[in-house]
Amino acid sequence: MKHIICIASEFKGNEFLEEAQASGWHVTLVTRDDLRDFAWAWTSLNEVHFLPKQAREEEYLREVVNLAGRRPVDHVVGLDEFDVLPAARIREYLQIFKGMSRSHALRFRDKLTMRSIASLNGVPCPEFTPAFNADRVNEYLDKVPAPWIVKPRTEVSAFGIRKCSNKDQVWEVLNELDKRNTWRDHPSKFHIERFIEGSVHHVDSVIKDGKVVAHGVNEYGTTPFKVAHGGGVFTSVTMDYDSKDRKELERLNKKLLKALNHQNGVAHAEFLKSEEDGKFYLVEVACRVGGAYIANVHEHACGFNLWREWGKLETETEENPYKAPKARKEYAGITLALANDERPDTSAYDAKEIVYRVDKPRHVGLIFRAKSKARMDELIAEYTGRITDDFLAVAPVKERYDE
Question: pTM score > 0.90 for this model?
Answer without folding.
Answer: yes
